[in-house]
Amino acid sequence: MVLALPLAACVHAPATEPHRAPVTPPAAFAGIDGAAPEQAVPFDHWWTLWGDPALDAQVERTLAANQDIRIAMARVRAARAMAAVAESALYPTIAANGAVWGTVANGTIDGSLGQLLAASPEGASGTAGGGHVVALGAAWEPDVFGGRHADRDAARAAALGTQDMAAGVRLMVVADVVENWQQAAGLARRLILLDRSLSAADTLIMYARARMAAGQSDAATVAKVEAARAGIAAQRGPLVELIAIRQRRLAVLAGDPPEKPVAVPAESGLTLPAVPTGELPSTVLARRPDVRATAAAVAARAARLKSLKRDLLPRFNVLIGGADGHVTLAGIPGYGGQAGLIGLQASVPLFTAGRLHARIVGGDADLDAALAMQDRTVLAALEDVEAATSLRHGADQSRAQRERAGVESNRRLVATDALFRAGRKTLGDVLEARLDALSAADAVEQAQIAQGSATVQLYRALGGGWDGAGTVSPAPAKP
For this UniProt entry, which segments traverse the membrane (predicted)? Predict the structure, then answer.
């Protein structure tokens, strides 16, 4: 131990590369109003903002049964167990041992011991002797230079990172449920509109054929109407299959086979949340699971590098032990007693063929890679928020324009119907105006589905929801 410290002075850690400063986030987002929200909503129940109890129940059922979440939580338990293992190295290890035995002489033991055992009275019956030993020992490595504490810190950081990754999995699963649910509901509403369009097209075809039979129209007009009807009908099959795909996806997310699709009503009562306000880059980055996970990875790599550098320094061990035992041989007096041990041990690496230095260089490179990964994740998170906000604003504008077009289509339908009743328009004009109005209503539904998808993407980008609640304007009355 006296020689360990001066010898350690001969061992130097290799020089490492300086690490760059982390990315500095901006003070505010370009697409989010910095005003404080009017109402706080828990981030871990963001989906309740959509106002659909059936959706709430589906999310809760999925959280309880989803396999990805189960896998992630199992990894969290494993990481926490490894952190406990690393922390246990800070404390002494105490072990108790015991043994009891007996020996049998059957004439196969050579030499004077065999003759002695064979000549003893017990030897005639085959019993030669026995004994027992009971021992209690302890070993402890005092963490003089903090290497074991660094290992513990690295394991704790790794466990926290695994927990953050599990939170990210939960985030993605919930977002997947909400997006598929709102898309299934929107597609079901589109299917209703399409069937109404087909009914109007059938009526228009019958009217065109009747006019042709009366000599008031021609075959080209009938063919044009039939072609339009065929184009509408061609959309039905893909819509039905898209709805089935969303329903099967919801079943699989909830741990059921796809053969048990989840029924989503067309009028599900969904209320689209408004664009959030009061969100700052600093709060979003502190909330996002992927950013927290990379920060935990940096902490783990830094602690690991510290531990690797401590391997160049001396190690000290304290050994304490005690034993009690007794040994008996037939015909020979028994021997027994107690023994104790206390020892101090020190070691310092002098020559390892560059192994420890290479580990330090590798650990420093791992830390640099973790820092770069953290910077990349921060930049990607900021980009996600801005992109999702732009998508939502674009979807809002698109829906507003299509709603205005729908209002105009409904006005045209009402006016055409009034002119028909006054004898100034034909029934064909009314049916064509009705088809145009139904097409405009379908365009509004498509815009609403796009709004919902953009909202879910914004939720993902913000890392679990936002503060504030609100709704967009409702769609106009359907024709």
Answer: none
Report yes or no: 55 and 47 within 8 Å, Cβ to Cβ. yes
Total domains in the chain come to 1
Question: Is 343 inside a domain boundary?
Answer: no
Any domain includes 301: yes
**In the chain, what is the greatest distance between 2 CA atoms, to the nearest angstrom?**
137
19 is a domain residue: no
> What CATH number is associated with residue 441?
1.20.1600.10
Rounded to whole angstroms, the Cα distance separating 469 from 454 reads 16
Structural domain includes residue 94: no
**Looking at this protein, which amino acid is placed at residue 264?**
V
Please give the pLDDT value at position 119. 59
What phi and psi values does residue 337 have, to the nearest 5 degrees? Answer: 155, -170
Range of the domain at 163: 24-89+141-313+348-462
Q: Write out the chain in H/E/C secondary structure.
A: CCCHHHHHCCCCCCCCCCCCCCCCCCCCCCCCECCCCCCCCCHHHHHHHHCCHHHHHHHHHHHHHCHHHHHHHHHHHHHHHHHHHHHHCCCCEEEEEEEEEEEECCCCCCHHHHHHHHHCHHHHHCEEEEEEEEEEEEEECCCCCCHHHHHHHHHHHHHHHHHHHHHHHHHHHHHHHHHHHHHHHHHHHHHHHHHHHHHHHHHHHHHHHHHHHCCCCCHHHHHHHHHHHHHHHCCHHHHHHHHHHHHHHHHHHCCCCCCCCCCCCCCCCCCCECCCECCCHHHHHHHCHHHHHHHHHHHHHHHHHHHHHHCCCCEEEEEEEEEEEEEEECCEEEEEEEEEEEEEEEECCCCCCCHHHHHHHHHHHHHHHHHHHHHHHHHHHHHHHHHHHHHHHHHHHHHHHHHHHHHHHHHHHHHHHHHHHCCCCCHHHHHHHHHHHHHHHHHHHHHHHHHHHHHHHHHHHHCCCCCCCCECCCCCCCC
More confident residue, 330 or 369: 369
pLDDT per residue as tens digits for the range 42-84 = 567 888 888 899 999 999 999 999 999 999 999 999 999 998 9
Across 36-40, 173-177, 265-269, the highest mean pLDDT is recorded for 173-177
Query: Nearest to residue 445, comparing CAs of 478, 408, 407?
Result: 478
Q: Rounded mean pLDDT of the chain?
A: 84
89 has a pLDDT exceeding 60: yes
